[in-house]
Structure prediction request, 307 residues.
Amino acid sequence: MDDYLNGVILKHELTRPDKEDDRMRHVMVNNANIEPVFFTYRAVPEIDSMVAAWVKEHDPEYDFMAADKVRHQFWVITDRERSERLVELFEAIPHTYVADGHHRTAAAARVGLEKRKNNPNHRGDEEYNFFLAVHFPHDQLTIIDYNRVVKDLNGMTPAELVEKLKAGFEVVGKGEEIYKPARLHEFSMYLDGKWYALTARSGTYDDQDPIGMLDVTILSEQVLKPLLDIEDLRRSERIDFVGGIRGLGELKRRVDSGEMAVAFALYPVSLEQLMKIADTGNIMPPKTTWFEPKLRSGLVIHSLDES
Prediction:
């Protein structure tokens, strides 16, 4: 927990207060971390080789196919010398990065602070000072897109929205077939039964600014705020977020059902962008990155009980 509070663990996204509260209650009620936070770090060859060697030499503790058809294999390194060497190698890594689990990390820190406050004999080594996490090297991860759906057009007709978008984007109709963004600064929009390609015009973003160059920033500054009047992504109830693992068909379904009025698909952020933003102390808007596969909750549990 102290690594998070002291900036050794770096974050890159804002969190939503309601989701922080929800995850904090979950930990407090169970008095345990039930699912790990997903961290990444700049790859270290010796760590990679040590892990690969152990996997090759030993059978996994658990090996199963989950309901979502993702295979999970879990090894326990029981050799003390290797474990101590891994600790040394991680101690030399200046920062780790929250990849997936900003709300769980923030909630874990809040739980720890609450328990510290209520423990007059606090020592610093109690279990509530620690939380469950998994670390993957950055070169073994791929970020998936995280898309947006909006409930209404802020009083505009579909034709009026398309016309207003032309000030900041080159707008090209793509018909009824699903269209996926192919590069940075290109978006796809699903509106009124049709797909559009939106390419941000030069001058509407700053590629020298680690935050200004992000497509989530461009969408917020050029569309969500000025046109759809969505100022606060953390609290607005007019916007929702759809992980790219669900496919763009999910965006189409939610608009066609009438639940949402318009959907925007984004090109995924790169890991280098993520780490650069965290390194420079910047923060992405909420719901910018999506990682798959998810580790199964409950496979490993960290109890906050001292016993």
